[in-house]
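Notes on consecutive records. When two proteins share a document, each keeps its own sequence and its own token line. Never mix them. Below: protein one.
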Amino acid sequence: IACGGGTPCFGDNMAHLRRHGHTIYLRPDTDELIARLRRDRRHRPLLRDIPEPWLDDHIRQMLAGREPFYQQAHHTLTTNTSAPKRLIDYLQRLSPSAE
């Protein structure tokens, strides 16, 4: 399952996810992530009310605070929009059904 970005950062969530599943952190380029979040910000409650001049810094601070949790994932894959096929191939190799 894909969980929201804050899910692994609360309580014992990441430990629970690791115990009961296989965790993969899809790590995008920070600037690419900021651009994507800016385009979709009205659907993101934690970003919706942040004043425009502070938005990029706010996103960077949120990401920095979450990164230690994300790094606990079983796998970290750096992603970008130019290589989705490579990402899909890698994820399929990790899938239990691929064994």
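Protein two starts on the next line and is unrelated to protein one.
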Amino acid sequence: MAIYGSGGNFITYIKNNEMLGVEVTLFWDGFDNGNNICQPGIYILYVEMFNLTGNKIVKKIPFVLSVKVN
């Protein structure tokens, strides 16, 4: 699982080559691979999964990184 910016630029990996259960909760701290804080905005979670028969499933899930405003 990887995170990309809205322009398609690679940001970071969340999980890589790990066996996961049916339901998974993910957490991203908002930092990129260089340990730089990312700007608020729209990002894409890119997921590649394989089912029990070996078929690959690809999902692109948009989400928003936001900041708390006092």
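For the record: Strands lie at 2-5, 10-13, 41-50, 56-65.
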